[in-house]
Amino acid sequence: MISVIIPMYNEEEILSVNLIKFDNLSHDAELIFVDGGSTDRSIELVSTRGNVFCCNKGRAIQMNYGAQHARYNTLLFLHADNIVSPETLLSIEKKLQVNGFIGGCLTQRIDKKGIIYRTIEAQGNTRARFSKVFYGDQGIFIKKDIFFKMGGFPEVPIMEDVIFTKKLRKAGNTVILPDRILVSPRRWEKRGIIKTTLLYSLIILLHKLGFPLEKIKCLYDDLR
């Protein structure tokens, strides 16, 4: 079994869409929802789908908190607008039973038709394979003991996934599984494909140049 950790904050709309999928997933995994102070019906919607915890807002803070309450030896971190199949959970467990593999991510598939979305996801998947640096919406998974030896996600305002997986690739062998993780297209639909893509590229560039994460977070908040 796998412990699936899902941070959330005012995610009523997308959770309503994904409830049936979470129901299906709950038969094959321990679902841990960690709320950061939602004022909508997020907690109510997931209260019968898994364990619900509350803590201070912050994706890294919430994911670390969820990991502390996980019962199983494999952790999978999902965004609220991501979904995976029960079969994917089995693939993760089998891969981490192979000597040397300590974690990895899944192959992203944006849940929307169109060549532009195929291009966006292909670029992200290729980048992950070559760099071994994973983003949160690619479904980061890891052995629990390794996660805690690494100190969990750095509790920073943004880019916790990038910082963490840069450390992860040095800790042992990681893998990008062919199994798909479905990602909601809502961010591209909300701001537009061009603006969203340019803003993400700017965020990554500013991080590489060493800009303060607190300032970079302001751009991300606008994007969301």
Compact overview of the structure:
This protein has helices at 12-25, 42-46, 59-68, 86-96, 115-131, 144-149, 160-171, 186-191, 193-208, 213-223; strands spanning 2-8, 29-35, 51-54, 74-77, 82-83, 101-110, 140-143, 173-183. The protein is an alpha/beta fold and 224 residues long.
Could you describe the 3D structure shown?
There is one protein chain. The protein is an alpha/beta fold and 224 residues long. Helices cover 48% and strands 22% of the residues. It contains ten helices and eight strands. It has helices spanning 12-25, 42-46, 59-68, 86-96, 115-131, 144-149, 160-171, 186-191, 193-208, 213-223, and strands at 2-8, 29-35, 51-54, 74-77, 82-83, 101-110, 140-143, 173-183. The chain has an eight-stranded mixed sheet with strand order 3-2-1-4-7-6-8-5, sandwiched between helices. α9 (193-208) runs antiparallel to α10. The model has no long low-confidence stretch (mean pLDDT 95).
Notable characteristics:
alpha/beta, 10 helices, eight-stranded mixed β-sheet, 224 residues
Radius of gyration, CA atoms, in whole angstroms: 16 Å
Please provide the count of β strands: 8
Structural class: alpha/beta
Biggest sheet: strands side by side, in what order? 3-2-1-4-7-6-8-5
**Portion in helices:** 40-55%
User: What letter string, H or E per element, gives the SSE order?
Assistant: EHEHEHEEHEHEHHEHHH
Largest sheet: 8 strands, mixed
Average per-residue pLDDT, rounded, comes to 95
Low-confidence stretches: none
Outline type: globular
The number of helical segments is: 10
How far apart the termini lie comes to 32 Å
- Which strand-content bin applies to the residues? 15-25%
Task: Specify the oligomeric state.
Answer: single chain
